[in-house]
């Protein structure tokens, strides 16, 4: 495993971080034994950064992580958890959430505590409820070690505003080769680094979109150039190429992914890609970006839906219909197997408030109903 240095403490942080938002499931629940096996295997193989959040897996990720870190594993990692700003309705909620998180984790402290999902709207709540003072107090008490934020705002300019507002210990942004200019983007990464703030990266493979079943034109492109790396390798190495990156979170769902990601990030250096390789990646990004209608990363922040719609799955089907030019196949799938169907959406839009990609989810459901259910 490669390591980079956390400037506050000089600690070596593994380039691969374990994101606990897409743990393996069985019958709709986290497959506890497999998830613990995966997390511990990663730690045994050098991963020392584990990331969870209040809302991951509907609140079940934190207890699972707490269990995985028993038997001597807690001391081997930096544990990251996040204050769910979206659920904070009054100042006192912040202490309530932190207490609940420590209870769920069954731990006395959290190393890396982030204000979760900072965007233009949630930032107003942070100011209104004095969240940064709260986090600073908790840091002084030793309940949390480092104060940070995860960012899903719309522009690098807003990212700079947030960076400049507080002496952050670290921050977390979304970055992959398809979204180099989205949200904070590369510009934000470099700005944070120029201020001495280490950056954790999320969605390096765009929620698996850069590695799962690839659209025909993208697969053909990789095949044509005889790429000597897997799509996951290209995705990770593009991110690792930035020396400003401290660690790269991957939300792993299978043991094979854990193994492959450890292999890739045990052999990834900053500034290692050649101009030709960077050019190849840029071309793939341009082709791929032109194909995808809706940039859902399957993060599941929008869930649960009061009408029980599986939003990320339905958006992935909507995207597939366009990318693979297969609307008939998707219509068959939806009408035969999917319940509830997109038409169950009542346009309450509560999911849209939570979507870090700012997707018009209700409109997508409406469009999906027209495309797939009225055929
Ligand atoms: S807008 Fe539709 S998909 Fe979103 S939460 Fe409401 S019912 Fe569910
Ligand atoms: S719709 Fe938005 S919040 Fe929901 S899974 Fe996709 S990106 Fe995440």
Describe the model:
With 375 residues, the chain is of the alpha/beta class. It has two domains: 3-289, NADP-dependent oxidoreductase domain (TIM Barrel, Alpha-Beta Barrel), CATH 3.20.20; 311-373, no CATH class. The chain has helices at 32-44, 61-68, 92-105, 120-128, 131-141, 156-164, 185-194, 216-224, 231-240, 255-265, 275-289, 311-323, 327-337, 350-354, 361-373; strands at residues 3-6, 11-14, 16-19, 25-26, 29-30, 49-51, 78-83, 110-118, 144-151, 170-174, 199-202, 245-251. The strands form three sheets. An eight-stranded parallel beta barrel has the order 3-6-7-8-9-10-11-12, surrounded by seven helices. A two-stranded antiparallel sheet has the order 1-2. Helix 6 (156-164) runs parallel beside helix 7. Bound molecules: iron/sulfur cluster (SF4) (2 copies). One iron/sulfur cluster (SF4) binds at residues 305-307, 309, 311, 345-351, 361-362, 365.
Overall geometry: globular
Q: Using DSSP, what is the number of strands?
A: 12
Number of helices: 15
What name goes with the CATH superfamily of the largest domain?
Answer: NADP-dependent oxidoreductase domain
Strand content: 15-25%
In the sheet with the most strands, the strands line up as 3-6-7-8-9-10-11-12
**Estimated helix fraction:** 40-55%
The main β sheet shows up as: 8 strands, parallel, barrel
Output mean pLDDT.
92
Q: What would CATH call the class of the largest domain?
A: Alpha Beta
What structural category arises from helix and sheet content? alpha/beta
CATH topology of the largest domain: TIM Barrel
Ions, cofactors and other bound molecules = iron/sulfur cluster
């Amino acid at each position: 495993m490669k390591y980079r240095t956390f400037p506050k403490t000089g600690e070596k942080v593994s380039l691969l971080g374990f994101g606990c938002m897409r743990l393996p499931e069985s019958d709709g629940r986290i497959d506890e034994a497999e998830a613990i096996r995966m997390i511990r295997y990663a730690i045994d193989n050098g991963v020392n950064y584990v990331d969870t959040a209040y809302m991951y897996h509907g609140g079940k990720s934190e207890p699972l992580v707490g269990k995985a870190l028993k038997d001597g594993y807690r001391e081997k990692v930096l544990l990251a958890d996040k204050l769910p700003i979206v659920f904070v309705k009054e100042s006192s909620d912040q202490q309530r959430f932190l207490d609940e998180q420590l209870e769920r984790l069954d731990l006395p402290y959290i190393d890396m505590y982030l204000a979760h999902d900072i965007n233009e709207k949630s930032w107003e709540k942070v100011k209104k409820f004095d969240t940064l003072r709260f986090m600073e107090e908790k840091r002084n008490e030793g309940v949390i070690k480092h104060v940070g934020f995860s960012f899903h705002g719309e522009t690098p300019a807003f990212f700079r505003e947030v960076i400049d507002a507080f002496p952050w210990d670290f921050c977390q942004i979304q970055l992959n080769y398809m979204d180099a200019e989205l949200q904070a983007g590369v510009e934000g990464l470099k700005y944070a680094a120029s201020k001495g703030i280490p950056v954790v990266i999320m969605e390096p493979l765009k929620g698996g979109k850069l590695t799962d079943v690839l659209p025909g034109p993208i697969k053909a492109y990789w095949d044509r150039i005889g790429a000597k790396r897997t799509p996951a390798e290209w995705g990770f190495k593009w991110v690792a190429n930035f020396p400003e990156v401290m660690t790269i979170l991957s939300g792993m769902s299978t043991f094979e992914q854990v193994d492959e990601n450890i292999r890739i990030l045990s052999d990834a250096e900053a500034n290692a890609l050649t101009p030709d390789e960077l050019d190849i990646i840029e071309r793939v990004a341009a082709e791929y970006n032109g194909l995808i209608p809706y940039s859902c990363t399957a993060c599941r922040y929008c869930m649960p839906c009061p009408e029980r719609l599986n939003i990320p799955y339905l958006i992935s089907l909507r995207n597939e219909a366009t990318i693979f030019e297969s609307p008939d196949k998707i219509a068959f799938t939806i009408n035969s197997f999917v319940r509830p169907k997109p038409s169950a959406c009542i346009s309450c839009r509560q999911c849209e408030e939570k979507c870090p990609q700012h997707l018009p989810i209700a409109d997508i459901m409406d469009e999906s109903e027209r495309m797939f259910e009225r055929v």
